Structure prediction request, 272 residues.
Amino acid sequence: MTTDEEIELDHDEEESVEERQGLRAPVIYEIIRREGEEELSRPALSLVTSGLIAGIAIGFSVVSEAILHAYLPATPWRHLIESLGYTVGFLIIILARLQLFTENTITPVLPVLLSPKLSAFARTARLWIIVLTANVAGCFLFAATLVASKPLPSDVFNAALSISQHMMENDVWQMFVRGIFSGWLIAALVWMMPSAENAKFWVIVLMTYLIAAGNFTHVVAGSVEAFLLVLTGELSLTSMGFQFFLPVLAGNIAGGTLLFSLLSYGQIAEEV
Prediction:
């Protein structure tokens, strides 16, 4: 038998081979592109509501991380364990199919890359503005609730402030560069999900854990931390905007859209 010959398989065996081959890159691209088309066509009220809930949900990443920080001993390995708490909000958001801005740095971008028309750019800008605004509003509501109603034990709340202060130790350039890594990881997570099947939970945990463990910056999760400092008087709103929000936003977009989305499109451009 030559290398060009194929083994004859029955129907069941052919299906077994196809199942084990996994999804080809063009298939993954098409799955995400169709999801992007769906998101782009959703009513504004649906996006606002979903984005607001996501902004609130991401707050539980900060709280979970703070709980572990507060009750673990102050050892060099504490950061590696407490970073697991960071995954909680992302698990809620992604498995509940809520709107998170950093996911949208790739999902609605793929339809634009396939058909780069002015109307497509306008639809993407609409989605980004609505979702990001709703996410940030949800983050503010969550942070305001923690400060005003004090539902957390004092040591856990102080741990959340400590984590927030640590984030703000980054200068503007570090905020931007670490935001690129975070945006790339979230975009990679979105790309991996169609192939993950029953392992979706672990894919989400792994990729978002790396963001926390690596001290990378995320514009939505970080907004909860920044708002905590603003509302407790440790940070001005202006400093939050220029030192944290804008550089991290730019970094997340650069990592998710300019790097991952364009490179992903490049690998299948000749096949679609």
In short: Residues 118-149 form the longest helix (32 residues). The mean pLDDT is 88.
